[in-house]
Amino acid sequence: MGDTRDQEFMCPVAHAARDVGHARRCVDALLAHWHMSPEVVGDALLLVSELVTNAVSHALPPAVLRVTSRRGILRIEVTDGGPVDEPRTAGLHDEHGRGMCIVTAVATQHGTVVHSGGVTHWAELHHLWATPSPAP
Length: 136
Hints:
Structural class: alpha+beta
Number of strands: 5
Oligomer: single chain
């Protein structure tokens, strides 16, 4: 099993599409350092992509990405300044608008918290399958 200590990572997300890739690269390196299994990393990166894209595309700045690992649960949160427009449902042939459906399919649990500073979308994965830490 990987490192089971409580761990946390935070980074601001600039309000541009290119920051989705930057957020993914940061979390990929972070989860490798935390010794997460490739399966958990793949799911986590998909969640990061969808949550950060949602903030950049549909919400007001500022946005902050936060990743925590506590007691076998990996939590990914993106807090933004709140919605720019009303959420809509993706049509059959739309190329966009399915991000939260993907989050629902991949995450163990997920939710949204509305607060005075904006909105936090979060998703969790159980990472009990973390790979062993390398021998010292």
